[in-house]
Every structure is written in structure tokens, then in C-alpha cells.
Amino acid sequence: MPTVLFVCEGNIHRSQMAEAIFNTKAPDGWKAMSAGTLPRRDHVHPGTVALMKEIGIDIAGQRPKLLDPAIAADAWRVIAMCELQGCPTEVLDRSERWPIIDPERRDCSLLVTAGM
Questions:
Q1: Domain CATH for 51
Q2: How many domains does the chain have?
Q3: Going by DSSP bridges, is the β-strand pair 31-36/95-97 parallel, antiparallel, or unpaired?
Q4: I want to staple 15 with a disulfide (CB 3.0 to 4.6 A). Which of 8, 40, 43, 105 is the partner?
């Protein structure tokens, strides 16, 4: 089964959202996973959970996961969703970086109230 691995630093915002949206929209036989290079929490950010709930996707049961190099090596594609230079982008020849600003440095409640 082809797997897309979305990676960000904490695995509490960007990569969790990407995993959930991909798995909701993916064709049969495809799946997404997510991980963080430095997860520091035991839960996905509440603002992220609320935002996803607004579009009908429940990620309340998701937990941040540490990036596993073996899973990355087996992935069809690794998407590093980081704006920082330290974000891993050299995972074989199947990786790329999407420079998406970390919502942790922003007020996520603004996203929820704005309906974004």
C-alpha cells in the first residue's frame, strides 16, 4: 500500500491535518501517516482538533508520534511541512519540503473563529 508520510516538528498541527485530510480523500489503496522530528506533547493541539472538526474530520484520538526512519524509508513520498532549515528533507529521493508556517507560533483560535 503506497504511504505518504507528512512530517513537521511537533506533530500537533500541520502534519496531523495533512494526514487526516489525505486519508479522507485518498484513493483506495493509499494511506497517509504523520510524525514529528521533536514531538513534545502527548496530544494534538486543541485548536487543530477544533479546526478539523469544523470540516467534518475527527482527529481527537490522534497522538503526536516521533519520526521513525524505517517508516520514512518505506514511504512512497515524505513531505516535510516545515519552514525551518532544520526540517528533514533528505529521505532518499522521495522527499520534498512544503514551507508551511508552524501554527504553534500563531494564535490557532483565530483560525477557528475565522472559519478557516
A1: 3.40.50.2300
A2: 1
A3: unpaired
A4: 8
